[in-house]
Design brief:
five-stranded mixed beta barrel, binds magnesium ion, 12 helices, BirA Bifunctional Protein, domain 2, 417 residues, alpha+beta, binds adenosine-5'-triphosphate, 30% helix, 23 strands
């Protein structure tokens, strides 16, 4: 990527109403654009981060045997009336609209009910099950407060997965494997050490759901955390009975702020019974379908990563999600630029994503943008050192650069000799 050819612009103009650290940094670095409160567009570099996160999630969901699909944003009222969740006093974040003929439609804030209705048309027999499907979808929610940048959008990207099982045992096995897959996702995006399985409200059906909470000072949730057991309890269900039940010791718990980066639900047969979704088992009997559902806030995750990894100079992306591995700068005249072009082509041929700052601006400005954008490696080809065949390479959080040969540099970035 040559900076001159991609739409990317760092800026000092952050909207004055934007308080959240994640949004302020991401706007300055040119990763997102604020349309209005809680509504953000993703610019090319921001989209690359989103795509990197999606790639990791996709791999992990596929490893469970789930298949990707895409549901609709427009949803029929009747689907939600089955469970009573069309009612605005039951679900208070609906965006609703009307067709020209007056028919009411909802804008998808969740896809649980639509998926159940759809699956009921396909899974008639035990032979059709189990089924697990997932999607990446823009969810629309009329949130009261949207002050946490992309950590709370009125429009945001979620990965949601739904598993349809024949019995509790089959469901529980899938649930456990999914939980492990979720933990791998958080580890791979760099948040593993700060993310905890957390007991939270189960909604209307079950006592608990399990959340994945990342400890972060600007998180909107409060959790009680047992570091040693790597378990936590959300304040919404925290009480002595619950602690007893979970075998947690009050004295061992820390109270911390956290952000919910995922939430998984084991509904058993309750949702199937409620919605009247049944299948025929081996003995020819009608059985309710068993449902579990699994959500990850993809854009929230990006926000939490930005909140977690930054310093005075800007963002610090973990390598697995960084929009590029290296930020390349030439300091010198035409021959130096030619050498830089060569290096750019070489690295690109090796499949390394490089941002080549080919703008006609001062080196200091390029250094500042490299730091602000949080690219893991900064590479400088400088007329002073290149005469000895030395290339300058610096890690984003290191103070001083190293000077290395072209071969050593390529090896550092590719792992290839
Ligand atoms: P919250 O309690 O934060 O409002 P929720 O429990 O309503 O979230 P779920 O319906 O469980 O959210 O959605 C699954 C995941 O989607 C959440 O774990 C979270 O990571 C993400 N998410 C939910 N609401 C938002 C939002 N408004 N903006 C960004 N991400 C969100
Ligand atoms: Mg939740």
């Amino acid at each position: 990527m040559r900076i001159s050819q991609i739409f990317s612009k760092t800026t000092k103009n952050v909207p004055t109403d934007e308080q959240a650290i994640n949004a302020r940094l991401l706007i300055r670095a040119g990763f997102i654009y604020k349309e209005m409160a809680g509504v953000y567009a993703y610019l090319p570099l921001g989209l690359r981060v989103i795509e990197n996160i999606k790639k990791i999630i996709r791999q992990e969901m596929n490893s469970l045997g789930a298949s990707e699909l895409l549901m609709t944003s427009l949803q029929p009222k009747e689907t939600w009336e089955i469970t009573g969740r069309w009612n605005d006093s039951v679900v208070d974040i609906w965006f609703k609209s009307k067709l020209k003929n007056g028919t009411e439609v909802g804008l998808g804030w969740s896809h649980e009910e639509p998926l159940m209705v759809m699956i009921s048309k396909y899974a008639k027999s035990y032979r059709d099950l189990p089924i697990s499907v997932y999607q990446f979808q823009t969810k629309l929610r009329n949130e009261v407060r949207a002050k946490s940048g992309i950590m709370r959008g009125r429009e945001f990207l979620m990965k949601d997965m739904y598993a349809f099982s024949r019995n509790q045992k089959e469901l529980d096995e899938f649930y456990e494997r999914s939980k492990q897959a979720y933990l791998r996702v958080y580890k791979r995006v760099g948040l593993g050490p700060y993310t905890y399985v957390t007991f939270a409200s189960g909604g209307a059906f079950t006592q608990f759901s399990q959340e994945f909470q990342t400890v972060t000072p600007n998180g909107e949730d409060v959790i009680y955390l047992d570091q040693a057991k790597r378990l936590a309890v959300n304040e919404e269900v925290y009480n002595d009975d619950v602690l007893n039940q979970l075998g947690l010791d009050k004295q061992a718990l820390q109270t911390v702020k956290a952000s919910e980066v995922g939430n998984i639900f084991n509904f058993g047969s309750l949702k199937g019974e409620q919605m009247g979704v049944y299948f025929t088992d081996e003995a020819g009997r009608q059985q309710p379908i068993f449902l579990s559902s699994y959500g990850i806030g993809v854009s929230r995750l990006m926000g939490v990563i930005a909140e977690h990894f930054n310093d005075k100079a800007g963002l610090i992306w973990p390598k697995e999600v960084a929009p590029a591995m290296a930020y390349l700068i030439a300091i010198g005249d035409r021959p130096v630029q030619n050498l830089t072009d060569e290096l750019y082509n070489l690295l690109t041929d090796y499949g390394v994503a490089v941002i080549y700052d080919d703008r006609d601006v001062r080196p200091g400005e390029k250094f500042a943008d490299a730091d602000l954008m949080g690219i893991p490696w900064r590479i400088v080809v400088n007329s002073k050192t290149i005469t000895n065949g030395q290339y300058e390479i610096k890690g984003r959080t290191e103070d001083l650069p190293e000077f290395v040969s072209k071969e050593a540099l390529v090896k550092r970035l590719t792992g290839v000799d």
